[in-house]
């Protein structure tokens, strides 16, 4: 009962934030996807415009194909504000999971109960997973419901794959913030680490691709593993999905190794 309460209480404490982030993700997803009918009508003009762009710039911006629904959604919904919102939310909730509560002093109340630090860490991590999954679900349901209205001819399974991969990328950065917070107990450090790696990941999967010496940055980017398989066209990629699943679990294991031994500021 107590174990369930640690997990449930964390979600209840963050329920208002979760609802707000879900509304934001759904609104942004709908806003960008709603332009597809107009874009489809002007596909020829858009293609001519793309031909005038400097070589490599369109690829860096994710604009390789703006004439298909898959290409348009990849370049707008899945490469711009929607994943950024998810990642920001994941980093904030991951930071709050341990370091935030530790600095506020509320972690003391949790650890005062007969529950181990590992159990607290795992259940807070589970709360972060559910939080991020709910954001992915908001994006998926928005696309699934409005796709027929907006003439987006993409199967529900492919929409689910794309939103799931994006949510998993966000979970990687949220897990990093949680892990750094559990290791250091510092909210600012956890927040900075999550944000820094997210920025490096985004740049590594976009502009760094145009510099041969920096292409290795792609392999450090969760964006690369989420977007490169083109899940809107191909569905889940088993290998890349496995990487996006393994990274959060590995970060949790690293965090547990330190969190159970260090002095907690309570």
TrEMBL record:
Chain coiled-coil ranges: none
Residues annotated as transmembrane: 15-36, 71-93, 125-150, 156-183, 190-211, 238-259
Transmembrane listed as a keyword: yes
Species this chain originates from: Lipingzhangella halophila
GO molecular-function term, one example from the UniProt record: ABC-type transporter activity
GO cellular component terms given for this protein: plasma membrane
Domain of life of the organism encoding this protein: Bacteria
Taxonomic lineage: Bacteria, Bacillati, Actinomycetota, Actinomycetes, Streptosporangiales
Keywords annotated in UniProt: Membrane, Transmembrane, Transmembrane helix
Protein name: ABC-2 type transport system permease protein
């Amino acid at each position: 009962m107590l174990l369930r309460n640690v997990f449930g209480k964390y979600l209840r404490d963050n329920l208002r934030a979760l609802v707000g982030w879900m509304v934001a993700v759904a609104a942004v997803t709908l806003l960008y996807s709603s332009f597809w009918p107009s874009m489809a009508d002007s596909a020829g003009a858009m293609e001519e415009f793309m031909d005038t762009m400097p070589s490599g710039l369109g690829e860096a911006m994710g604009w390789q194909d703006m004439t298909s629904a898959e290409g348009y959604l990849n370049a707008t919904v899945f490469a711009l504000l929607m994943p950024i919102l998810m990642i920001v939310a994941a980093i904030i909730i991951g930071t709050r999971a341990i370091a935030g509560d530790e600095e506020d002093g509320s972690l003391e109340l949790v650890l005062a109960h007969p529950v181990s630090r590992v159990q607290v860490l795992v259940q807070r991590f589970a709360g972060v997973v559910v939080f991020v999954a709910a954001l992915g679900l908001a994006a998926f349901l928005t696309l699934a419901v409005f796709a027929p209205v907006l003439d987006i001819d993409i199967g529900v399974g492919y929409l689910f794959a794309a939103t799931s991969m994006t949510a998993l990328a966000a979970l990687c950065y949220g897990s990093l913030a949680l892990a750094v917070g559990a290791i250091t107990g510092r909210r600012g450090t956890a927040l900075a680490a999550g944000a820094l790696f997210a920025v490096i990941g985004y740049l590594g999967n976009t502009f760094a691709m145009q510099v041969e010496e920096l292409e290795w940055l792609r392999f450090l980017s969760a964006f690369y593993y989420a977007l490169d398989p083109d899940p809107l066209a191909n569905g889940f990629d088993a290998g890349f999905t496995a990487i996006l699943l393994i990274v959060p679990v590995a970060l949790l294991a690293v965090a547990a190794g330190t969190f159970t031994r260090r002095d907690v500021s309570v």
